[in-house]
Amino acid sequence: MTPLRPCLLVLLLMSLASGAQAQVTALCDARFPCTSNPSATAGVDSRVNLTWRGQARTSPRLSQSLVSNQGTFLLGDPVGGQRLGTSPTPLVQPIGPSTDDRGVEFRMTESLRVPAAISQQAARQGERQLFYVRQFGLEGSEPMTGVQVITLQQGVPGRGGAIPEGTEPSATGVTIQRVSLFFDRGSLTETLRPDETLQATARISYQGAGIVNAIWEVATPASTRGQPLYAPLSYVRQYLGAGRELTLTSPPLPSDTSGIHRVRLRFLPPTEIEGLPTLSYRISEGALQRDSRVPTIAIFPPESASPLSRETRFRWRPVAGSHAYQLEFYDRWPGAIGVEASSPGNSRHAQRQPATLDLAPITGQVVVGERTSTSPSSSLLSHLEADKRYYWRLIAIDAQGGIIAASPLEAILHAP
């Protein structure tokens, strides 16, 4: 056996001595408090952001890694309580050399998923809190245990957390009776600039109680010319109680691409529902062409025009370069923006029409593709009052979301 050289022997002894001295000396105590009052919803997959704080004594010459291999959920007692499950995600953080005897302070963050099965099991046993325990240690040292107390909130309508894609939904006794979809301004269609924000709202009528899984989805202009391809925007996992009606609001909708967008709320198994409504909105370049007129769309008198009903059919001649058409309804006669205002009598035979009016439509619907006729949807008609006169027009939209043609305003009576 070849003897070690003196210099190598000294380095080895220093390394062993350093390892022996390395130690976590404080964790989640009065001097280094951890997360303040974290909470999760019972029976719902919840995401809790935790902070671990403490102090470690390390080698004065070497950097080391602070490691926690996994976390454990315990019930009743953080030491010998009932084990409910684990979080297998390891936490690792480098710790620099100690510069004095006081050691090095550390701070680690953890985004913890509290599974619905674990919080529900605790709630069924009458517990109002969980203990989440982790052991932290440096290489070659004895670990120190840290404890976080997670308060359990009861699931009620209006509360709920996001669920990651692929999560198996819970069984539910909820029957969805009706879903109404509209934008936060109360309309069914919207036109906005890229710097404007917009959200969708779903009003859900239901019977029973349980957890419903759904997903907000958006189709961008890349696919709305043909078959829309929807991409996930936000997942929802919601407890429905005895309220019988619930309102959900989407996150801010994408507005960085000009053109036609579609948005929907799709329910996931076991609460799958066919034929749910969709909304359309348009992102326009150039501040909505506020100072211009556009060519007139040739429209034909609506079939069964009086009164307005589900059987009424609006027809028009196709417009070259159009990507979609939008039928708009106004509750009073709007004026033009940036051009001389017109009246019902003199706008009908004009060769050009204002692109933008000084009122927003109260409702409408988008017709995508090469169609040249449409009938009002039930959702559209539900936004109109009975025995009231409205004004409607049709606009043609190009692939960039700009208005390239518009029909004159026409009056029509809604008398269902």
Reported by name, the CATH topology of the largest domain is Immunoglobulin-like
Largest sheet: 7 strands, mixed
Share of β-strand residues: 35-45%
Helix tally equals 3
What is the CATH homologous superfamily assignment of the largest domain?
Immunoglobulins
Helix % is under 10%
The N- to C-terminal Cα distance equals 103 Å
**Residue ranges: pLDDT <50 for 5 or more in a row?**
6-20, 156-171, 287-291
- Give the CATH architecture of the largest domain: Sandwich
For this entry, what is the oligomeric state of its chains? single chain
What's the number of structural domains? 3
Keywords: Signal
Signal peptide: 1-22
InterPro entries: Ig-like_fold (IPR013783)
Question: Could you explain the architecture of this structure?
Answer:
It is a single chain. By secondary structure, the protein is mainly β. The chain has helices at 6-21, 116-124, 378-382; strands spanning 23-27, 39-41, 46-57, 64-68, 71-75, 82-87, 91-95, 104-114, 129-138, 144-153, 160-161, 175-183, 189-192, 200-207, 210-219, 231-240, 245-249, 259-267, 279-283, 293-295, 299-303, 313-316, 324-330, 352-354, 363-368, 373-374, 388-397, 403-406, 410-414. It has 3 domains: 22-153, Immunoglobulins (Immunoglobulin-like, Sandwich), CATH 2.60.40.10; 160-283, Immunoglobulin-like; 287-414, Immunoglobulins (Immunoglobulin-like, Sandwich). It contains 3 helices and 29 strands. Strands 2, 4, 5, 6, 7, 9 and 10 form a 7-stranded mixed sheet that branches. A 6-stranded mixed sheet has the order 11-16-15-18-19-13, with no helix packed on it. A hairpin with a 5-residue loop joins strand 27 and strand 28. It is elongated, with a radius of gyration of 31 Å. The relative contact order is 0.12. The model is unreliable at 6-20, 156-171 and 287-291 (pLDDT under 50).
